[in-house]
Amino acid sequence: MIDLINTTKNHHFISQVEQRWNASSNPDNPSLARICKYEIVDKSSFEVHATNRPLIKNTSAKDDLYTLELFESGKRLNLEKFFGVWEDKYNKIISSFHSSIMYKIESNNITSKSIDGSDLIEDVKYLQKLKFLNFIRNPHNIKKSLKSFSFCKDFIIQGVGEEFESIFNSLVNNDKRQRDYLCSQYGVSPAEYDSWLKLIILFVYYDEGIAHSSIDAMIEEYFKAKELCTTIIISYYTDSALTPLVPDIGSIIYPDLTYLFNVSKNCFVLLKHTPIDSEDIVMMCKKFCEKNNKPYTEEALNLCKNEMIGKINTSIHVNDKELLETYNKSCIKESVKFVYSASPIVVGAKIIKKT
Predict the structure, then answer these.
(1) pTM surpassing 0.85?
(2) Which of 19, 69, 213, 344 has its CA 20 to 30 A from that of 310?
């Protein structure tokens, strides 16, 4: 129980380790790292206002956000242990991820064309799991998450052992002194807040009887499913003036299974799982036939579908400013109030002085 019950109350909904990969400064003491913060002024014209450079340790965090129970001793039962399963690997995996990309860039001696990235799929899977977690656990997304997973609203996973018993009892007792304040901050009802915590538990929980979390199983299935094909674009920047934003909602996930997420101040990923029977595949086949002067027929479509079944296409794009502009604009459009960056320059946005 030492991991679940602790004194931690400053809960980050975008982890500090991810934010530090977007830090505007890298001091020897990580607790002094800062990040550029931009307030969104006008989404339609992509206008932002540079506010300040807050300490990362105080950014994208709220006291007792994931606390299930407060004790008189000052300790609390919270969900931080389960988030650490992914967060603790970030530095090692992303360092290797960056090194692999830089090796490819240097080996190809190019700075602007696409490079094969098929050997990085396992890293992208890890990233998708963490970024999905970021979307689900972000309080700005409470209503959106509950709507997306309404079919499993208020489900409680059946675990075993003392940890599960403590979590279950805390849900039954439902004594969350911080709830009213958090609900007022994020515009949700107490019932929605409670349902949201249950949803997070449903996705992250594991124990000796449950080897893998639901997040693990879900993302792995996306890549195994024969009824899907997957496109991954890794957009990487060696130019310090080209910097991807971090949206305040953590990650962008659209209903059509398109993911957009920041990896670091040098990189973001666009990932899409496309159903084989979707209109997207039909349009792709039509374009292929037109390009190759072939008639579009039912047979051609079936051949195209068979070719796409379970296919994973992974490419690396280097210093693509147009891709970055589209990504940054998406971050501004989808965020609630703020976007973050390592840079004083925001490609795709107009930085204005707020009057």
Answers:
(1) yes
(2) 213
